[in-house]
Amino acid sequence: MEIGVYSFGDSQRNEDGSLRSTTEAITNLFDAIVHADRVGADFFGVGEHHTLEMPASSPGAMIAAAAAATTQIRLGSAVSIISTDDPVRVYQQFATASAISGGRVEITAGRGSSVESFPLFGYDVVDYERLYEEKLELLMAINDAGDDAKVTWNGSVRPALDGLEVVPRPAGGKLPIWIGTGGSAPSSVRAGRLGMPVTYGIIGGAPARFAPLVELYRRTFAQGGHAIENQKVSVAALGLVAKTKQEALERAYPGWYNMNLEMGRRRGWPAPQQDAFLAQAHGAGAYYIGDPDDVAERIVDLHGHLGHMRHFLQMDIGSLPQEHYLESIELLATEVKPRVTRLLAKK
């Protein structure tokens, strides 16, 4: 199984609680990706977000920079909000990064769990479904273009393309493109129907409850007669690794509290409660927070339900100190990953 990391960027805070610069957040994110590559993580995803607390608004730019500074890690978006972006520009940015990286780049196309990008780019959330459906179709058409790179497409959300060239082409001719979803049945069916890999973002509840969705995805995929090598499931979740479980909980809780307090202010969520945090950080919960043995065992347990091939964690939330973040990435790659491999080999 591949073990990795994802991030929306994480702005640090001053002692008085005010946010430090987004420039610092982006340079911290870049350093984290380079560190993840150096210590042996399999994947790093950059999720598109548009807030002062999480400012990684341009995954394509970040991935291109990381492509030039890394040597082995796979890089991708997690997710690109394709509904409010131009699929042509998204593809060109990631194809460029693919060429620089030697083919280590992929796209996860999602609708986004937040709607900040809709007013930012002049879209109406009323068109949420239509924007995603049509723009995903265009993104796939671009990826399927032949050696001449010419694309023909028409729809209602963007000017048509009539045999126009979309360049550069990525290393290997095509990009891996995943569907990203928070766990809806229609999205599982869409990914299976289109023969695409699927990423489930599981940020609460019992992760094993996603098993029926994964089964729905695999059944729809099989009915479509698609190439079996594209039938892939990955899981994105919250987590943090430290040398002891207690240390991991103590490091993760302040950031979790800060994030939920801010998201509650923006979206009307209830005030965060420590009991809710602790319930998710143990056993069958969705937060992979603990020492290497604990996190590895819980990932392998979920694999027994979902059979996923990649598990990657968002760990830098709510102004987690950078040194704790880098340590967690290193423990994930050097301690959790080999434990997961050993445990899966015993099954």
UniProtKB/TrEMBL annotation:
One Pfam family linked to the record: Bac_luciferase
InterPro entries: Bact_Lucif_Oxidored, Luciferase-like_dom, Luciferase-like_sf
Residue stretches spanning the membrane: none
GO molecular function, one term: oxidoreductase activity, acting on paired donors, with incorporation or reduction of molecular oxygen
SUPFAM superfamilies: Bacterial luciferase-like
Gene Ontology annotations for the cellular component aspect, listed alphabetically: cytosol
Protein known as: Oxidoreductase
